[in-house]
């Protein structure tokens, strides 16, 4: 099979768009807000009575984005900004119709955008329309902060040191914030940044933006930012470092076979050093991630490994440099491969911008050996470079290396279990048009190992288009049999995949329906000889209502030729033989309620045939109720019924998760999650009390309990007290 044959059509299509969109001007460059320097001392209280705010220029007259983008917003908004030698200040006022109630889920940091009345600031300090920072608050003062990547996505796992306050009134709410220059990265001596302001008002179901943005794009789209004009370049940061030590104590016990648990006292921490105003060095010594929230359990009826997102703080700043290469199921680097169940001794990361157009990510992590299993000490290193080309596109290079230290000293039996080294080298091109309507990607990956069984090739490409009424996407992937990515996430090898979708939206002049329309999506898998192994064809219709509720109906046609034995219940029963063919049809149903209700719900169902001529019935419900703004209760219910011929007969199982999120203030949080997974016979509790007693400094009390139910009975529990403090200069 000639792999180049797969690439050529997409390469040709992308080449055309290089020329068309290479030098287009940013759409909203003429929308400007001017900042001046102030010497006034600010009190961040949400009142805004400083003299500076009487003189500052206002960004107002916002545009509506949803439900329709062809008019001005009905709810007035006004944003002002200023700065001094140390901080960037913002005062925003959001007027509302008296009598309309505020909609707020809780006071928890990094709230859900769609479930809260909120304001968000998007900043593009390098004016590259690709990366940046986001800060915001909901109407009761909960904070939001994240790093921006890929032109409009926000990673909320990033946490920084800044302050804000909100005041509520009958006819408006006001947010005031101060963001230290040391908390962000920017290019020195530059007096123009990209900027935009977004507001969501759920009482009127209106999303608005300072600059006009087409309704099919998020307000975070950096391609549509305006310009923040400084009267002088922002101050040079000078020496910029932070020291974030922690100390913790843990007690616990295990009655699960082969798992021991010892009480421990642990000390470690992180160091952040600004090498330049736009490049940061992060060091971690003896890191601990005990405060990280638990993964959400899911019922698994697939033949492949499931993906769970990274939640550990050290791996998250500029994470897109490392995690965005390739596709979701072809990732050469997946940080969760490092340090889960294995102690991390130390790590270092250099990340950020070398200049306006070139970004660098360099990470090195060292893990300890594990005597119980014979796992040797291992080193994980990854290099990522991203060079901007044309208006918003970029070329990326990635190299990933996993090395087992003192490998030659291992016993021969362990040498067959653990790899001496595994390396991935990749190159990709990411297309993003100036108006954000077209995006695409082409990438190639080569793996290397101690012998030819590790040497393989992976490649993918796609091109997508999105306008107000039309969207389409074509995608292709290829992975050879020997492609190996031990530090990545590649659940499937030795296939060719073709994928396509097309959809259309109707925008009726209706007081109840915002949009509706059909969508077709198809996934087709082949072996390297182009013999079909499996496919899914989905034809659906979706309706989006004015109150932000939605309804969807999909019919699907699915075919699977098993390439390996598989238990269709994933509960340890008999397996279907490799090579057997299975074909079925079914329907998906989905309804989401309006988010401004105190009681919210999302219902989905899958009804239809299944393996071996059987039937599968799946019903899912996500329920929520809030006593705003202090208590948010949630429940996830999932039921699967598999009606199959012998020897499986009828198999059914539940997945139940309940969550209580109590926010006493916007600095004191208590979250408790109960999860019961009948498929894996597991019951778990994760309860976390967090007190943010100072900016970016926390006291955590975390209780974990994991119960293995019959027939694998046993219990593992732990209680951890952890103290962190953020020193910075």
UniProtKB/TrEMBL annotation:
Start and end residues of each DUF5916 domain: 242-339, 376-727
Gene3D superfamilies xref list: 2.60.40.1190
Keyword list, A-Z: Signal
Annotated ranges, domain Carbohydrate-binding: 44-204
Highest taxon listed in the record's lineage: Bacteria
Pfam family, one: DUF5916
Residues of the signal peptide: 1-24
Name of the protein in question: Carbohydrate binding family 9 domain-containing protein
Source species of the chain: Flagellimonas profundi
């Amino acid at each position: 099979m000639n792999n180049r044959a797969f690439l050529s059509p997409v390469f040709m299509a992308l080449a055309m768009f290089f020329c068309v969109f290479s030098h287009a001007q940013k759409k909203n460059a003429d929308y400007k807000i001017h900042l001046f320097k102030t010497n006034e001392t600010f009190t961040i209280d949400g009142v805004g009575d400083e003299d500076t705010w009487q003189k500052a220029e206002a960004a107002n007259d916002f545009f509506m984005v949803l439900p329709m983008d062809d008019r001005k917003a009905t709810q007035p908004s006004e944003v002002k900004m200023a700065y001094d030698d140390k901080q960037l200040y913002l005062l925003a006022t959001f007027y509302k119709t008296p009598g309309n109630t505020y909609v707020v889920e809780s006071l928890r940091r990094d709230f859900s955008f769609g479930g809260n009345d909120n304001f968000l600031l998007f900043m593009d300090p390098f004016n590259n329309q690709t990366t940046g920072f986001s800060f915001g608050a909901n109407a009761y003062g909960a904070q939001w902060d994240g790093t921006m990547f890929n032109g409009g996505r926000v990673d909320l796992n990033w946490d920084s040191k800044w302050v804000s306050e909100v005041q509520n009134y009958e006819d408006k709410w006001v947010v005031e914030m101060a963001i230290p220059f040391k908390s962000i990265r920017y290019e020195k001596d530059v007096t123009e940044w990209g900027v935009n302001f977004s507001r969501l008002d759920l009482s009127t179901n209106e999303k608005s933006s300072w600059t006009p943005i087409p309704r099919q794009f998020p307000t975070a789209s950096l391609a549509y930012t305006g310009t923040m004009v400084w009267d002088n370049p922002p101050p040079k940061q000078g020496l910029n470092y932070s020291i974030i030590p922690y100390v913790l104590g843990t007690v616990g016990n295990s009655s699960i076979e082969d798992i021991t648990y010892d009480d421990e006292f642990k000390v470690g921490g992180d160091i952040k050093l600004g090498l330049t105003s736009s490049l940061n060095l992060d060091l971690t010594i003896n890191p601990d991630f005990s405060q990280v929230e638990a993964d959400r359990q899911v019922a698994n009826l697939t033949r492949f490994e499931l993906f769970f997102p990274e939640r550990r703080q050290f791996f998250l700043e500029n994470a897109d440099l490392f995690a965005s290469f390739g596709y979701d199921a072809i990732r050469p680097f997946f940080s969760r491969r490092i340090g889960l169940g294995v102690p991390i001794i130390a790590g270092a990361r250099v990340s950020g911008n070398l200049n306006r157009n070139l970004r660098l990510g360099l990470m090195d992590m060292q893990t300890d050996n594990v005597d119980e299993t014979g796992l040797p000490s291992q080193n994980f290193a990854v290099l990522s470079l991203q060079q901007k080309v044309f208006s918003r596109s970029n070329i990326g290079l990635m190299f990933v290396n996993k090395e087992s230290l003192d490998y030659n000293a291992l016993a021969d039996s362990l040498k067959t279990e653990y790899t001496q080294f595994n390396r991935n080298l990749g190159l990709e091109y990411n297309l993003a048009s100036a108006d954000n309507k077209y995006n695409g990607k082409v990438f190639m990956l080569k793996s290397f190992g101690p012998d030819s069984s590790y040497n393989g090739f992976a490649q993918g490409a796609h091109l997508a288009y999105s306008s107000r009424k039309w969207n389409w996407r074509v995608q292709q992937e290829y992975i050879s049999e020997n492609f190996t990515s031990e530090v990545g996430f590649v659940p499937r090898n030795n296939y060719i995949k073709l994928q396509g979708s097309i959809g259309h939206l109707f925008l009726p002049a209706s007081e109840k329906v915002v949009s509706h329309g059909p969508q077709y999506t198809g996934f087709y898998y082949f072996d390297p000889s182009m013999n079909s192994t499996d496919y899914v064809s989905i034809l659906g219709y979706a309706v989006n209502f004015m109150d932000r509720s939605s309804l969807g109906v999909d019919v699907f046609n699915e075919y699977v030729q098993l390439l390996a034995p598989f238990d269709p219940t994933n509960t340890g029963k008999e397996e279907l033989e490799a090579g057997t063919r299975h074909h079925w049809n079914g329907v998906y149903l989905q309804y989401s309620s309006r988010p401004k209700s105190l009681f919210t719900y999302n219902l989905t169902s899958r009804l239809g045939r299944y393996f071996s001529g059987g039937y599968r019935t799946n019903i899912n419900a996500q329920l929520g109720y809030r006593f705003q703004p202090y208590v948010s209760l949630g429940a996830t219910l999932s039921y699967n019924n598999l009606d199959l011929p012998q020897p499986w007969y009828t198999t059914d199982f539940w997945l139940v998760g309940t969550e209580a999120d109590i926010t006493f203030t916007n600095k004191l949080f208590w979250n408790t999650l109960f999860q019961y997974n009948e498929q894996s016979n597991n019951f778990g509790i994760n309860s976390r009390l967090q007190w943010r007693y100072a900016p970016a400094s926390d006291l955590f009390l975390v209780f974990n309990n994991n119960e293995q139910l019959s027939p694998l009975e046993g219990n593992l529990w732990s209680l951890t007290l952890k103290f962190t403090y953020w020193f910075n200069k």
